[in-house]
Amino acid sequence: MSDPGSFTIPCDLGGSFVSYVLADLGASVNLMPYSIFSKLNLSEPVPTHMTIQLVDISLKYPQGIIQNMLVKIDRFFFPVDFMILDMEEDEKVPLILGRPFLATTRALIDVGDGSLTLQVEDDMQLTEVKGNDSQMWKPST
């Protein structure tokens, strides 16, 4: 397996939106496009004065933060804080889960083995992952 700087995994947002998300080790925040946010009929995001610098060095200003949104990955639920950003939606992977999510899930990524382990208390889920150019998640049975 090559360096998995990013990979995709399926997620469920409160039972109303199921999609693949991009888990990105280079992202310092979790991002949700405004178009997805508006489809979820959530309350207004909490205002923020944060500035996000993108890979192309341009600056973006989030429309706010949605705090503690429950995201289901396989059989686990995790609280995630999303920055809401007016950005183009990628239909295949519309959400970006960055290092804060990976820290919350206590994610262990074994590059040599091609596996991802998520942990809730003493309960662990080992899952196979592949690079970001193919099917990346093989849910547990």
UniProtKB/TrEMBL annotation:
Reading the lineage from the top rank, the first entry is Eukaryota
Q: What name goes with this protein?
A: Aspartic peptidase DDI1-type domain-containing protein
